[in-house]
Amino acid sequence: MKHIKKHISCTIMIVLIVAFDQITKYFASLKLADGSVAKFIPGVVQFRYAENTGMAFSMLSGARWAFVALTFAVCVGAFYYLFSNKCKSLWLYWSIGVVVSGGIGNLIDRARFGYVVDFIEPTFMDFAVFNIADCAVTCGAVVLIGYLLFDAFSDIKKPKEKSNG
Prior knowledge:
This protein is α+β, with helices and mostly antiparallel strands. Helices cover 61% and strands 12% of the residues. The protein is globular, with a radius of gyration of 19 Å.
C-alpha cells in the first residue's frame, strides 16, 4: 500500500509539472509569438518567445526525431524504474520524477511542433532562453547528482566490516 501512495503522488506531481509547463508555453505562444517582450522582474528576467529546434542552448538543431526517440526511451526507462519498486531512496525517486516531468514537457512540444517553446529570459546575464520543463530537468538533475555524490561519499566513509577468518 505504501508503494501505491508513493506512485500516485509521484504521478500527480509529474502531471502537475507537465501541465504547468504546457500552460505557460501556451500563453507564451499566444502573447509573445509576435515578437513582443514582457518585463517580469526588470533587470533580472523577462519573457520572450523563442523556438528551440535543438537541445540545450540549441545544440544539434534539426535532430527532431532523434530527440523524440531518445527522450521517449529515457522516460519509459525511468518510469519502469520508478514504478517497479526498485528505487528505494525517496530522494532518488523524486529527483527522477522531476527530471521525467521536464522531459515529457519538452517531448510534447518537440513531437507536436518540431521545436520546444522557450520564453524565460534572464536579463542580468547572457544566458539561453528556457522554459518550465528545462527548470524541472535542471532542478531534478541537481538533486539527483547531489544524492549520488552523497551516496558515493557515505559508502566511502562507512567502516569496512572485518571478516573472521
